[in-house]
Design goal:
18% of the residues lie in helices and 34% in strands. It has 89 residues and is an alpha/beta fold. The protein has one domain. The strands form three sheets. It has a four-stranded mixed beta sheet with strand order 2-5-8-10, with no helix packed on it. Strands 1-4-7 form a three-stranded parallel beta sheet, with no helix packed on it. The longest helix has 12 residues. The N and C termini lie far apart (27 Å).
């Protein structure tokens, strides 16, 4: 099912929180000015937003469900996905 842009406007906001040694399911929330250290970040392909967040290089990304299929599709058409070391959005 396609994601409508309006879904991004009404996401619950998590503002200014520091996550450490946690597993975070990103879908369904908007993270603003948050910090992620030693976290497992799971994205399943649903509406989510990261704004002005810091993601430490010691975080692990897991793409599952629809997000995993999208990654596989992009790689099948020649895209190279290279994860960054640290990310500040």
């Amino acid at each position: 099912m396609p994601i409508e842009l309006g879904q991004f406007k009404n996401l619950p906001q998590i503002i200014g929180k520091t996550f450490k040694d946690s597993t975070i399911f990103l879908d369904g929330n908007a993270y603003v000015n948050c910090t992620f250290e030693k976290c497992v970040l799971i994205y399943q392909g649903g509406p989510s937003k990261l704004t002005s967040c810091y993601i430490g290089k010691n975080c692990e990304w897991r793409l599952t469900d629809a997000a995993s299929y999208t990654l596989q599709f992009l790689q099948s058409i020649g895209w190279q996905i290279i994860p960054p070391k640290d990310v500040t959005l």
